[in-house]
Amino acid sequence: MVLVHVVPSSRRPVSRLETVIEAERYARLRTTADGFRRRFAGRTIWNVNSTAVGGGVAEMLQGLVGYVEDLGIAIRWLVIHGDADFFSITKRLHNAVHGHGDPAGLDAAAAHHYTHVLTANAVELLDHVRPGDIALLHDPQTAGLAAPLAEAGATVVWRCHIGADRQTGVTEAAWEFLRPFLSAAHGWVFSRRAYAPDWLDPGRVWVVPPSIDPFSTKNADLDADTVRTVLATIGVLDVPPAGPPARFGRRDGTVGEVVRPAAVVADGLPGPDDELVVQVSRWDRLKDMTGVMRGFADHVADHRPRYLALVGPAVTNVADDPEGATVYADCLLQWRALPPAARARTLLVTLPLDDTDENATMVNALQRHASVVTQKSLAEGFGLTVAEAMWKGRPVVGSAVGGITDQIAAGTGVLLDDPTDLAAFGATVRHLLDHPEERARLGAAAHDYVRANFVGDLHLLRYAEVFGALAPVGPAAR
């Protein structure tokens, strides 16, 4: 069985970014890339993570890898494999690093199995990675690869996309589990400074916020007719699909069509002009989909015909998230227990992942059609769905946790001080639904803020700084 798979990448024309970031930033990106290409000639950057689909890390890599290729820099993307026990361990680590869950299962037996799986993956990784290359390892699933790759002569950077602003006994137990694996890395990258444990050398810790690609399938412009056609096709709007299927541009430059339906659980569907509140995320307890449902049912649903769509991926398609099916099942049980009037205004939507570009178009249409987008997470490393919705000019109601606070600046959306206060959540959503002018003002400011702070050129410039500081000067060994 092959454990390590190469993810095919599609070169993305970096010149398109100039229309978004303007001339000065674009020139800086080009100049930095020219210097990087000369310094690192003959070396390859290897991104390593645990899934090619589902979640913000995979989506970011699709864009960033494509732009770096277009800049003439050697870059590749590899996905490792693990068994069910491995991903159960890493899911517990994921939750514990966020400060949630019981870390008791992170014992010597868990460490042994974690090491066993990653040692097997490392053997195959070393068929690709060569001395002098740069290995960018993403999240707890890959931490155990740092030592074998560093011993093979690669410069190893561990990139953590999750974390908690406050350290607790739960987070400390998770970091103690990871500590012996991370010590071999040459540097560590976090989305926020507060996420880094204090035992790491601060001189080798960098902060690199995530980013969106404005030209990805998920973020590309869609006109109103296309949005309506997509939502009718997937079964979210109470209108029949009119005309031919909606078309979208794929990452490889070809054109696709939205033809697959979503799996929609609903007693009623919104019409095309009804107000719709949307939350898009994995089926993950920390995203608090059930809390969003209860807050909407108790404080929003009885105010005029308004609808809520809780949207996530098909639960069988995200390989590294074993809790997805359980969380979705819990949402389904709680949906069935809602009062009939609230249940008729609430939709559970699982989107197929058979075609990732088609899936991205579905998400794009849902976010663009939404009157309000929510991200009421109990914990969040960054929450890329926030920046995605803001880019589309949507007002976002998000929890004041983790990286959401970096995205929703004053006047660009609404932050909830306490994500468990469902009455406050409902009142905020209801207020925005009642005030369309305020929604439009917040949405316009949100778009501008994302353009200024969370587009991929800034992400790449920060990575260039990290690699330039850590990688030795000299020819790569081949």
TrEMBL record:
GO terms for biological process: glucose metabolic process. It comes from the Bacteria. Residues 47-196 form the Trehalose synthase N-terminal domain. GO terms for molecular function: glycosyltransferase activity. Pfam families: Glycos_transf_1, TreT_GT1. The keyword Glycosyltransferase applies. This is Glycosyl transferase family 1. It comes from Actinoplanes nipponensis.
